[in-house]
Design goal:
Number of helices of chain A: 14
CATH class of the largest domain in chain A: Alpha Beta
Number of domains of chain A: 2
Order of helices and strands of chain A: EHHEHEHHEHEHEHHEEHHHEEHEEEH
Number of strands of chain A: 13
Distance between the termini of chain A: 22 Å
Oligomer: homotetramer
């Protein structure tokens, strides 16, 4: 029986306030399919958080679903997606985008982020009908390696996409962590204004399930609910999603939960750094990638769960430690103490 | 503000015992993606209920998702599905099966049920490579018009499918209602033994979300989790599904909830029949289809929500009334009283 | 060894003038992928025949290919096609349209033709996101049972499609036969002006292979060559298609060949009618459907190839006889003589 | 008006013997859809050439079509393809494989060829249901850069695929050139025995159109004609394909044409080498990639057509010169003379 799992940010259930809301609303009758009062209320709150009542909001149950829905909805059959090679759609979604008929180009990226040079290069290389036609740029905020796009970076990508007629879509499975990072210089409002669509992740930030797709570009709005239904993503009891986002976007809970996760990661980072460890990436969010001797890892595994991420050399490995809204500060301190003893 | 909605069986949240289980389990850490202890426990209970530990169980969030997953998983590109024209996949799933590349043949059916003659006829009509090749027979138990397949009927269809090399798949969105019907002569165990795959509906029988896919035919088992993930149906917090089915299959709750829904529908049926109304179908489950004068319908609508189903003549319409695990007996009686006054 | 096959209109090779053109052009070097001089010349000739230099012309190798290309190119994932139940895409294309992800609604039709009432009804029945969204009306000219849409009928369908925002697509595998029919009151120019897209069939009218897709609606034009390439329909030696249409649209050959096929069918019809036979449909084109006693059919089969089409009663069957540009008048007369002896 | 095009090996029509066969067979009536006597005869000849009467042969019109047909036919939805990054399916088929729902992994390769290490690495990296499952290895013989797999290389890849349960599929668009190369140590018989399926390219070796798909693995044989029809690849006048392969596999024409193309390329290579030019790849087939100064290229372009392939430095570019069955020896000599003057 391990002391704690740092495997991911979805090991626990939901923030207690969410469960309270589920309990208190339980026996009211609501219209199905996300047309209930909770979905409407959550939509209003997100509109307010975005400073934009014109965006369309759709609640779905998971990130792979959100990704495949948005992207398959806005492409013609021969159009393609540009993504960084570590992108979730490239590695960990079992070819969900390709299953909707579309090629995904992978670029090397820098610190887990797509660069404008790479976008331009892919577009330049694809110039006639024997090749797919790049149409969507897929980015994650925060990225798979914990990094975040700065305001300058996102503005530059956004401007390039507009110039090239590309759709910019942001996977926000961990958008809360990105927005709440100590190094963040982008708020939700500007983030949204710079993309054509994004989704705000609930599952990895204190919800039981749920992602809120935000469609900013009017051209992508029509008939999106048809896509949701067709892909099996329209929940009969849509209230389940509405209630959760209604709670998350009340009193800044969404940000508070993400900030806690980030702070726990930061505390872990500082503690490990003080013990002389280095990191694979310079992550300001809730996923960190310390490099540890393999024998230390083996001993840590007796008490903690976490994933190996990358072999560094024959005796060292970068591991991934993920904190969450639910990680206790005591657990961080105990982990650091345990690590010190092992070193 | 209406007194009550008979629009569907998913207007409320979940049975309170389910919420209690969510609350009490909330802060334990579990492995993701339906490999947690609750999913394992729920699987064991379903195995027991089926009297068969060899079937594969997979939990997903909704019916359209379950349908498209099972059927797209077991067909080659040119294979097709046979379904009754009122079938959910034919009417109310936005072409989800076709979106996976497969044609659905519709047959007229009888009382909402596919007949063996129809299955044989479709197979006979499709005999060479210029035509699709029928591969799956899709049936619903109970059907969209509230009826149920008898043991004799299901055995006959099952035998024909085996003979013809067809896969028999049962949409069990309302399987609880079918199994708990006063007229049921099939239990879960035999039902499962007669099909290649089915799903046990949770959403319409007291869960917040959730359907349990049961795969009986060994040929359909390999790599099914790849399909789930690829279609965006693998929940990170799979515990949400496991906990619910773990509660539903405890102490017969699953059957008790369905029986209650059926009893409320039966009480409604008897009451309306006593007032002289006839019905579109002879439903022994929780969906009934009384034929009412249009002016009565208009007045009922001031207090109750329900859907029109079929125009009978210029002055009469069959409406659909759906009861659920949560429908109070007092509501039934009040509805009948209100109806009497209007007549 | 049968005397003659009336099975279809593609039993022979090509009209000799086409082969001559292939031979005489054989060793010139041409650019690939239908950008050669012959494709350009054929395009010009078709533009002239249509009285419209603004339509886009694309040459592909077969009808199923043309159908799936045009329809998959212009629909979003949840959109659907309306077709008559005898339509080629419904019966004899192995679910090719569904394989691109789209549902096909079948309507009964009248004389093999879709009616405006049916189109309106399908649109009316599909009104929200739980259902597919009808988008394309697929019609064939001539139809699978040899009939043709009159000018009045096609104008009415065209007007309704415009009003409802539907795309009207015409399968012209046998468009030559329709336009050349003694009863035709539509020419190619008006036909094209009434649809969003159609294809002009070469394979069944004297070419070795080849159909010319004509795109009239500007919204359907962009990037169509990407679709052609992606579906494997862009021939490296596109000249093969260009040369054939360049010959067919020279000196009215396209019409002359179709008219010959029609005349042979008419001669056959009159001869059989004179012998007392009736017909399943009143076909003014090159497919006719006489009703014959089964024993006569059996004896005819010793010398002629043709398909059974529909059982009329226990002793009579409607068969399909197809004539072509290559059917000799002597063969018609000999068939009639042989039939007379058998009766 | 250029003197000659070295752009590709499909600029001319067909070898004259093929046209003669089309002319002489033109007016016989044949059964449609590749069940005619010519297809049967061609199949027999290919069986003989392969020394194996048990393989299935299917004739289709082009390479992209052959590729997407074979691969989409043998994969479940979550399975994927491994290919070298220069592979035709990765670059020049507009995402045709992805359009059938499948991801293509690209590996760097060596000399345009996939290596066993790379195959093993992709398989090792994909080990659970969050990732696609590699299923097909796609190779081309000869490759896009003119190289060929040696017997040792192909045997090694074949053995690894068998061991890993992967399907090995060979794109033989230029298989003739590979088999007829001076450096070839594999014949058609052994080549076929080492793969699960391949196609023998006609279009680039003297046919008007046509590729012969050869299915060696019995598991891939059932119902393949359904796939052909569904993808729009079943020609009504299948005779067109049968006649061509019947001629190509008569009296070694297939090999003679390929050998001529190779000899012309070799003469070009030697001549350019003698003038001091180097080459991007060491190609023993009919595509060569000399590296030329940009100003020489510009001048050559006044008289010859060819494609740039890769920029080498600011003043040099590797171009692609393709020879064919139809390239006259005099043209090679004239080109070399012209080049000498320019240097």
């Amino acid at each position: 029986m391990p002391k704690y799992s740092f495997q991911n940010d979805y090991s626990e259930g939901a923030h207690p306030r969410i469960l309270e809301a589920l309990v208190s609303s339980n026996l009211t009758q609501e219209i199905g399919y996300s047309e209930d009062r909770y979905c409407l209320s959550a939509t209003e709150k997100i509109h307010k958080a975005l400073g934009n009542p014109d965006v369309d909001i759709h609640f779905v149950s998971g990130g792979t679903q959100a990704n495949l829905l948005v992207m398959s909805s806005c492409m013609r059959p021969f159009e393609s997606v540009i993504a960084v090679e570590s992108g979730h759609i490239c590695v960990h979604e079992t070819g969900a985008v390709e299953a909707t008929g579309h090629k995904v180009h992978t670029v090397k990226g820098k610190d887990g982020k797509v660069t404008t040079n790479e976008i331009q290069a892919v577009v330049d290389e694809h110039y006639f009908e024997h090749m797919v036609k790049p149409r969507v740029v897929y980015i994650s905020q925060s990225t798979e390696v914990g990094t975040i796009y700065s305001a300058a970076e996102l503005r530059e990508i956004s401007a390039l996409c507009k110039k090239l007629g590309l759709i910019l879509f942001m996977d926000g499975a961990r958008l809360g962590a990105a927005l709440s990072s100590a190094r963040a210089d982008l708020d939700l409002k500007e983030t949204c204004s710079l993309v054509d669509a994004l989704y705000i992740g609930g599952t990895k930030n204190g919800a039981l399930i749920g992602e809120a797709i935000v469609i900013n570009n009017p051209a992508l709005k029509p008939d999106f609910r048809y896509c949701i239904k067709q892909r099996g993503a329209l929940l009969a009891k849509g209230r389940l999603l509405g209630i959760q986002f209604d709670v998350l976007f009340n009193d800044n809970l969404f940000y508070d939960l993400a900030r806690h996760a980030n702070l726990m990661a930061e505390r872990l980072t500082r503690g490990m750094f003080a013990q002389g460890y280095n990191f694979l990436t310079d992550s300001p969010t809730n996923q960190i990638f310390p490099i540890l001797p393999n024998d230390v890892i083996a001993k840590l595994r007796e008490d903690y769960l976490f994933y190996d991420w990358a072999k560094m050399d024959t005796t060292h490995t970068a591991v991934r430690l993920v904190t969450s809204w639910a990680t206790p500060i005591e657990t961080i301190d105990e982990f650091l103490k345990d690590l010190k003893i092992l070193s």
